[in-house]
Each structure stands twice: as structure tokens, then as C-alpha cells.
Amino acid sequence: MMDSVIDIKAPVAWNQLTLKQLYVVAELFDLDLDRDTLLLVSFCRLAGLKILRSKGEVLFEKGKTRFKLEAYQIKEFSEKMAFLLDEYPVDIVNPTKINGHLLDTKFGSYFYADAMMLRYSITHNRRFIKKALKELGQRCRFISRRKAVAVSLWWQGVQGYIEGLYPLVFHRSKGGEAQAKSPFLILQDLFLMLNDNRPQDNKLIEESDVHGVLSALNNKIDQYNKEKEALKKK
Fold this sequence. Notes:
There is one protein chain. The protein has 2 domains: 73 residues, no CATH class; 127 residues, no CATH class. The protein contains 11 helices and 3 strands, in the order H-H-E-E-E-H-H-H-H-H-H-H-H-H. The chain is mostly helical and 234 residues long.
């Protein structure tokens, strides 16, 4: 009698997750599981497997088929889920109605939303996700815990995309000075670089397109760095 073949498939990268699977991951992240448990449970949930116990043995079930996996197989399958913890969630499915590249988004809205997302990552208070989405143009009456985690993961991917476009703007000093500054002080520094000592223009900067502002900042920093290098050579 031939052994039956069991087709086990699961995503192996962030950009392979469906929206439903992203919510599954969000639920698991919210449970604060240890690494090994998170990887194993993620593999089972995303591959559509159930874990059963029968006569002291651990069995897996897919559809109506029950089977056993050796320890090395479980480890091998689980490690394929390591991207959830070790890789940046870039290009993941969008759980919001907001444009994933922030097209037509005002710089002020982007900056405030990012500050709210940061507050959520520190406090896990879902009202900050609600405020961030409202600033970006999406009103929500209620934000579930899994929705908050999913949006936070999505925003990390958005930030990764933005930082890739304008790396000089998001460059962190080795001493960590940038991280220590409050969002308010960072915003004031950005204004000073763009307003040519005209604080009355700050509102105009906030109302401008986020990509236009960040592109201008990136270019300004690039020019400054080149001038600095030129002075060293004199």
C-alpha cells in the first residue's frame, strides 16, 4: 500500500501573507509567546494544521488526514516561519484603506501618525492606532487588538519603504542622539532645515506632500554632506 502524500504549504515571507493570515500572525504576536512556540504555532495556523494528542503522542491533522511528524521535521517547518521575527515586514498586505505608499498624504499627517504609531508600540494602547488612522484619513469606531497589531506591522513596512527612499533623512547617529529626541524636537529640526529661517512657512511645510518634503530634506542633507567633505579636502 502506498503512503499518502500530504501537501503542506505555508508562506515563507511577509509579502506572501494574505490579509486573513496577517490577522492570524497579529493574534499570535499579541499572545507574547516565546520564539519556539510562536514559530511552531504560526506554522500550524498558516499551513492549516491542527495539533492533536492521542495516546501520549502528538499528531497533526490536515483536513481529515492525521499524521505524525518527526522532531527534525517539526523544527525544519517551524524555522521557515523565522521571517516573522527576523525580517522587516516590507510589502505586506494592507489592512487599512490608506494608500500603502502614502501618495497624496500631507507631511504633517504622516509625521503625527508616525508619532502615534510609536506611542502604540510603547504603550499598546489601541487609541493611538485609532488616532494615527484618523490622521491618515481613515476613521474607525473600534480597533480590535488583532487589528491594532496588524496595522502596527503594516506601518513598520511603510516606514521601511519610506526610509529606503530617503535614507539620509532617517540616518541614526552612532551615539543614538536621534532616538533620544522627542517627536516635537525632531519636527523643529526638520522645519529649520527647510524654512530658511521663516517660521511662518512651517504650516506650509506641514501641508505639503510627504514625499516632496522628505525628498527636499534628503537632497539638502546630501548637499550638506558633500560640502562638508569638500571642506575636509582643502
